[in-house]
Amino acid sequence: MKEERIKKKLSLSQMEKETKIKKEFIELIEKGDWTSLPEYPVTQGFVKTIAKKLDIPEESATAFLRRDYPFEERKLPVNPKPDLNLKQSISPKVLTIALSVFAILCVLGYLIYQYLLYIAPPKLEVTQPPNVTEVSENEIQVSGETDSDATLTVNNQQILVSETGEFSDKISVGKDTKNLVFVARSRYGKETVVVREIVLKLP
Questions:
Q1: Are residues 113 and 155 in the same domain?
Q2: Tens digits of per-residue pLDDT, 166-176?
Q3: Is residue 73 situated within a structural domain?
Q4: What is the pTM of this model?
Q5: What CATH number is attached to the domain comprising 141?
Q6: What Rg value do the Cα atoms of the chain yield, rounded?
Q7: 153 and 85 part of one domain
Q8: At CA 15, angle to CA 13 and CA 17, rounded to 5?
């Protein structure tokens, strides 16, 4: 390499500029001072870059490098530390702990969800009738939405709730009826109440 560099009239500084390799490393490679150079993979990269610049076949340059490089004196680690850490991080013990924590979190999440269901009253939206409604018949249309598992009564009359939580029905009213009291009750006994005022104008 040194001979080819001199033939091409290239100084170490020029080689440094052309190859982006420090001239100190280039000089060490030319001297064969392998112990002062970085590890073999890095040095091999330097040699290939320099060989390409000097029009030397890469195969020949790397062949000379393998012949002269003191592998026994500079043994490369078989398994670098990052791989060992990765292997350790997924050991059976760590995996067991992770699965146990995940299972505990799932159980806690389920318990919290059930607790929230227990303390939360069901939703209840009444679309019919609107508040302060004039009624001229003995029946009035009621409709709206609640929880699908809730039971619903209007003035103590049972109303059927669909699987989607919707309800629609007619209930009977009398001359003394002034309010419609909607009561949605969850399976945990929590209630939501909505009151609609009506004005009877029976003939």
A1: no
A2: 999 998 888 88
A3: no
A4: 0.45
A5: 2.60.40.10
A6: 43
A7: no
A8: 70
